[in-house]
Queue: 2 jobs
Job 1
Amino acid sequence: MRTRNGGAYPKPRSDNISSHNQRTKRQHAFGLGSSQRQDPPRKRLRPAERPEFFEWLHDDLVLSILSKLAASASSTSDLINVLLTCKRFNGLGMNPLVLLKASRKSMAIRAKNWSESAHRFLKLCADAGNLEACYTLGMIRFYCLGNRGSGASLMARAAMASHPPALYSLAVIQFNGSGGSKSDKDLRAGAALCARAALLGHVDALRELGHCLQDGYGVRRSVPDGRRFLLHANARELAAALSHPLFLPLLGSSPGSACPLLSDFGCALPPPDPHPANRFLIEWFSSRRVEPDGLRLCSHVGCGRPETRRHEFRRCSVCGLVNYCSRACQALDWKLAHKAQCVPMDRWINE
Ligand SMILES: [Zn+2]
Ligand SMILES: [Zn+2]
């Protein structure tokens, strides 16, 4: 095996010791005692002169370690800090084999930290075939940077590899005709993409498909099937909440009271964590208001999608004050907040 410098690995220390012993034995055999011939006194090496064991590690081994680290990174800084450690980590850390494995959390770049280098990092990960990077960069380009073509094609690349959030996002784009005109809506394509994401267990897609089936929107109307998909979405939502660290304290805080999950479809559950791409959109548009153009944001707090043309999103038919990119966002926001806030429009007009 060779080191990255192309040299051979040094022999183990035990070999050196045994050869030294053999040499000493040979010296005794030929009458060369310690009085006649002495080895020079062993010099204590200074730190700078000691052999660099890290340099002896094979590149494949370092790549394997860095790949595991990238896959388990809990933030972008986890990965970037390692790359900044030394020149070798910097070179090997940007290897496509490492970037391919980078975790979803390592793509969670904050909107306030967005820069050319952050864009380049996501692009390198996407080029390496990392589906989370394809989806995240696709969402950022499509909604934040206004680069609809490349954003949609990046999401399509992730969707073709069965990435559920990418399939669902493309479904929302098709349902709304986002990036085009009202006539660009393709309800059947939206429902088909949604069904694919729902089959992969994406909760928002299950909820969206359930409402589409109940309303006959893009698919043939079937109320029982729609109900089944909504129940499935709630079951998955409950399963996700059970693994949430905040869930057990929530149950323990109200001994003797009814389980909050027994309320309508688990409305007392903690809200699901938004995907890093959604969190980026939320932060991006909270600092750059889009209302002056007459474009509005989805009113669901965990979404962050903006309209790409005026009156693209559906409004609450009761109050007319909130807007949603999808039925899934509307249903979720109804449970989380809007149920308590919605007031019929004619009532506040009369008051
Ligand atoms: Zn939304
Ligand atoms: Zn309302």
Note: The longest helix spans residues 223-242.
Job 2
Amino acid sequence: MVMYANRINSIPPYLFAEVDRAKQQKIKEGVDIIDLGVGDPDLPSPDYVIESLCKAVKDPETHQYPSYSGSNVFRGEVAEWFKARFGVTLDSTKEIITLIGSKEGVAHIPLAFVNPGEYALCPNPAYPVYSIGTILADGKPYDMPLLSENGFKPDLSKIPKEVIKNTNLMFVNYPNNPTGAVADKSFFREVIDFGKDNDIVIAHDNAYSEMGYDGYKAPSILEMPGAMDCCIELHSLSKTSNMTGWRIGFAVGNADIVAGLGKVKMNVDSGAFLAIQMAAIDALKRSDEFSAKMNNIYQERRDALLVGLKALGIDMPKPKATFYVWAPVPKGNDSIGYAKYLLDKAGIVATPGIGFGKYGEGYVRFSLTKSVGRINEAVERMKKL
Ligand SMILES: Cc1ncc(COP(=O)(O)O)c(C=O)c1O
């Protein structure tokens, strides 16, 4: 009999499985499904990035092991982009590390900063890898509820002192998946002060930094004075440059924290394919122009979807960022039941909030990853419900 390690056994069950199964059944029955469940851009990566990869891959030097922390040219470009985008100066040799997608960084950070039995403070609902990465490091995720009455920000004053004493790492993520909430600089100030006062490493996941609407531009936590003392920030080209399959991202921040992550990575992976790093340089160079184009598209989709939700009796403010709409389910429903209802009656896939943690109950998440035509079709179906 195969025996799994306790850490594998302690990973919570995959709560989306039931909805997935129901979706597959509907497809078998020939239902025209509109899948607003997955957070994966539907439009292709930019042409110039593809051309850049084709060129880079013809150079045999890109075929060898890349450097562990990322090529100097890629990290140099990250430093330039960061300066232009956030006004923050970074030392590309010590304060930047290349990631094989930001998920890889999120999953490895607890191995560097959480001792067995220690807590990592994790938002809930959240991208599941914060808590799963903590469990894989034999740590204990401590849930920080993200509640609508607090603008989906954690209330740091509610974290017990005994927990804080036994904590060395905290995850935050704004613009936020799944809630679409954004953070202003005063929240980052509070988080940094909390980190410094309690000697806690702050890992800010900024994977959605470039997806903002109605003129909103997300800040970096590193813009705040003192952030470089205790913060690492994760970035990704996945969502912002339609490059989820390419697996490229980076982490920036305090040199010792970056070095800690680097030590884990050096021992478990061998860096990102150099040709992809070369192509990602071109993605970053034109990131402003590309994001402006994509954000117009997502904004139009968001506005179309909100019309449909209103028809369902769900009247909610427009999210300013990410490509998610975190919609409260009508009274008397739970998130799995409501997702099933949408699938059964309208052929629409939404992700039940409970899949992002227990504080996600009462919500479903819609991704704006279908054309405005398909979203309008979903809206028509919603109106008929
Ligand atoms: C909040 C958040 N962080 C990180 C990631 C990982 O992205 P990637 O590994 O593709 O960079 C995701 C992906 O869905 C996410 O939602």
Note: The chain has a mean pLDDT of 96.
